[in-house]
Amino acid sequence: MVKEYIEKNQQRFLDELFELLRIPSVSADSRHKGDVRKAAEFLVAKFNDAGVDKVELCETKGHPIVFAEKIIGPSLPTVLVYGHYDVQPPDPLDLWHSPPFEPVIKDGKIYARGSCDDKGQVYMHVKAFEAMIKLNTLPCNVKFMVEGEEEVGSDNLGTFVRENKAKLKADIILVSDTAIISLDHPSITAGLRGLSYMEVEVTGPNRDLHSGVYGGAVANPINVLSKMIASLHDENGHVTISGFYDKVVELSDADRTAINKAPFSLENYKNELGIDDVQGEKGFTTLERTGIRPTLDVNGIWGGYTGEGAKTVLPSKAYAKISMRLVPNQSNKEITELFTKHFTAIAPKSVKVKVTALHGGQPAVTPTDSAAFKAASAAFEEVWGKKPIPTRDGGSIPIVALFKDELGLDTVLMGFGLDSDAIHSPNEHYGVKNFLLGIETIAAFYNHYSKNN
Amino acid sequence: MVKEYIEKNQQRFLDELFELLRIPSVSADSRHKGDVRKAAEFLVAKFNDAGVDKVELCETKGHPIVFAEKIIGPSLPTVLVYGHYDVQPPDPLDLWHSPPFEPVIKDGKIYARGSCDDKGQVYMHVKAFEAMIKLNTLPCNVKFMVEGEEEVGSDNLGTFVRENKAKLKADIILVSDTAIISLDHPSITAGLRGLSYMEVEVTGPNRDLHSGVYGGAVANPINVLSKMIASLHDENGHVTISGFYDKVVELSDADRTAINKAPFSLENYKNELGIDDVQGEKGFTTLERTGIRPTLDVNGIWGGYTGEGAKTVLPSKAYAKISMRLVPNQSNKEITELFTKHFTAIAPKSVKVKVTALHGGQPAVTPTDSAAFKAASAAFEEVWGKKPIPTRDGGSIPIVALFKDELGLDTVLMGFGLDSDAIHSPNEHYGVKNFLLGIETIAAFYNHYSKNN
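Predict the joint structure of the above. Result:
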């Protein structure tokens, strides 16, 4: 029934999604503040159309949160759906084959910033809900909380959750912001890495200098920053920050064996990325490096003259954005402190260093033996014809830990993207098939979850 | 006589210089191509007004060269004056206290891009020549060659010099593009460092990736570039490129003692730059590090996300501009090759590296016992009341080696800037006193040089 409803309405579903994708709701860029709100208002209207009891645009100190609910019976289970309508900045723009905010379908994929992360996946929920309302088959209560600050650290979500515990009362949280292994191998994310995201500033002389006159005698902040960054890993790819690994849960051999059973071809991986070799922590496989091990990456670096041609400057300042992915039981607050302490300590006397924490989130693991996880598994099996594989994912959804701490609720990460969807990159895309099957799977989840609760 | 002429006309001299400074002749930026030509045309007009026999705007494959001459007697000595009318890019613009191309005088200093390097110093020559013509006291033949590509490597000067050897026939070359120690300590540059300026590109994966999904398993080009840059110096501040020091002329203890006799206060140096400590090659003083030792500096670095906020990207590419200052008898061509070979060799298999040479120049030493050097010394003594100190300077004027090789001519580097003039930096400035005394000193040079030739 849901399947037929989707088939009949799929063109309208896509048209509506395209309308949402055209709004450049880049939360990191203050110039897009108005667009972020516009995306929230779009969702308010669509929740109303879909048939919620009520929908609210809740103001925060930053971008607003959209809350909606449909209560059909106080004794029935309640699912709280979380998602986000903000998107990553689209740059570098020149690498996009089509403009990031003008969605197009090519080879069965929707190309646009946010198509997968997370507008496309949020919109599946709106449409799955609509289908069950129109067909009069919704088997449980549903609440929706869709925020506009996920890509900048969900700074105001914590306050909102703490101040609205009654309103958010539910039995389980359902999030679609992750990926399956492939269309042939559906999977459910059972673990997520946390995040500490820092910005560092290294200052040498008090002004830009002529490198010919001063070079060799005055510390160059770019050279110094490079050396400091290089020292953050040892020759085995281990992070050198003192205490970094202290709380890391080391997995049993059995667990590691299970993780490495996921279908994975190193050759395909290298070919798809155009690299001759992978690189990472010694003693771990690629799946382990991205799933169960903490990591440190420089996400951006800048300093000195970066224009056309040559300028012989010894700059005053150099900057980098450095983030660490965390695993259970690392604490993002503690790692942020360890990094700050370490980075300040390794600076030579010839420079000054400033370290700022930009944002962070706790690592999380979802129990695979819960009723909700089992319902998600059954929903996949029903719609995709295959039992989904539980995986450990590299990306962070910091709110999972927040929901556990503040609401006492577990989260089921039932995402439908693919790792190759290029989220956070130029040419982000999302399969039309993933979008449509996702809607069906969400509806199936409601049924399975309600049956067993 | 010249002194009085300068006093009477100084306001007009400054007005004319300001007009030249208002033209944003940034040779590195193709958007300023028209402005660069405008600056050349301005000089053509002013050479005519000053009384040359002829002046030509000579086309090259890049920006034009202005050539002018005044021949008063075939048996008299001929001085060929070299300078450049192009300027460095003005960025970072937000650090300028007044706009870079709107000159203002503050505390006796002219603030503008190019005020010292090299428009202000070139214009002293135009006005010294004018004074001697109007006073009918020019004692020798004078030729002028003023180019518009010095800040981007003088790419077309070599061809021009080779193709115009007869036109450029002279006895000595005179250049004002260097600095004196201070107004109290006039000095003449007797040695100059050479330059190899490179750009490097490090490519990891074929597209920007999500650092959460791929971080820890795929080489991050920023981390790799940082490590490669860090490895270019050892723990003693020596450059690690194999063969880098092979041809370096090691100075005698006597020569090193002489260099270190120049007035220099490490405390003042540190205070003026706002640094707690200097940093450089072990075993050498600051004056030696900037004068007689080769160095390596990163002039610019960029890669990944550098905008507002946080973006968890593992970028595809990272870039740096890296330059090396060279000393006798290093060859800039050879060092460029050694760098390219070394940098390519140290790249791990997980990335691809591209190295491009942007520009370069040979190191040079001027003989202090020549008639021309002695005339410059006498000119300073006459005007400044003090015998100038011969110095070794860190900056590069690559054309000195070119003139020696192609024209067989020595160069006298009679510059009037100060190291604190912030050339290549925001708030470049040039003392009005330096400008006016410079004009007088140039005229005195003509007299002393003609007497002894």
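The domain at 194-248+294-361 of chain B is CATH 3.30.70.360 (Alpha-Beta Plaits).
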